[in-house]
Each structure stands twice: as structure tokens, then as C-alpha cells.
Amino acid sequence: MGAYSTLSDNELLELLKGSDHSAFNEIYHRYFYLLYVHAYKKLSDEEQAKDLIQDLFATLWFKREFDLPSTNLPGYLFKAIRNKIFDLFAHEQVKAKHIDSLKDFVHMGTSVPTDQLVREKELSAYIERSIQQLPVKMRQIFEMSRKEQLSYKEIAEQLNTSENNVSKQVNNALRILRTKIGILIAICWLLR
Q: CA angle, corner 94, sides to 44 and 40, nearest 5?
């Protein structure tokens, strides 16, 4: 690995195109932190930033033989992570629109047809079951945050933990729930 650290980016790219694992590892170690800092500044979420970087490097490996630049590796990587961040934001906006649409639908009043009310109750029950399936500590923190409307500081004080831990638990719970609810919404969308 030591010899690879002296190679230029262009030399590493050429080796990577030939499926050289050590070249890939050197690129990963050379750029992971810089890309992570960039992604974290945009997302303010450590886990999301790490996930995007891991996804970027997986894509880099899979595209190594046919879709890599011959020069300017840093430019390529930063453009790729920027695009992944934009894709994530777009995906979050679509989910937010679906959730807003669902909220509007729920608040439409008594003129809502019975089958739609049934689906609403089923969705609410599904969300509640999904919350109950969270790990115990995560569920407790999530419910204190969302159902009891406590601040992270208040939760941390009550549970004798750090605000950072509370924040991570809530973010992890939201990621799990978004995934489950997103899948359900996609299925419902296909069945319309």
C-alpha cells in the first residue's frame, strides 16, 4: 500500500481501470475524509454523509472498467457526491410531498370515502407497528421526541445521556421509518 501512496491520481485511475484493489483502496483513503466533510456540510447528518460516500465508492468500483475519467479524479469525485446529494434532496422532497398530500387528504374532512378512511387507518396502524418494532431505547427516545414533543436536551436529561446520542437515535429511527413507509407508499402508488 505504501508504494501506491506515491502514485498520482491519474496513475491510480489507470490501475483502477484494470481492477487493481490496492489502487481503489488508495483512492478511498485519499479522498474519503474530504468527501465526507463536504457531504456532511451539506447534509448535517453523519450517517447519511457516510452512506452517500460508501455508495459513491461502490459505484466507482462497479464503473471502473467503462465510465471513469482519465484525468481530474478529485473533480469527478466531488461532482459525483454533489449529484448524489442532489438526488437525496430530490428524493426527500418527493417523500415530503407524498406525506403532505397524505396529511391534506387526512384533513379533508368527513366527505372522504370510506375506503380511503380505511386505508388511512391501516397506514396509521402500520406506522405505529413500525415504531413499536424499533429497538427499545431508540423507540423510547423517538416517542419522547415526537409524541411527547420533548427537546433533545430534555430527553437527554431524563435519560441521563448526551444530546448527541438522542439526535443520533431520532435520526436513525426516522431513517428506518422513512424506508418502511416509503416502500409502503410505493406499493400503494403501484396499486392505484
A: 15
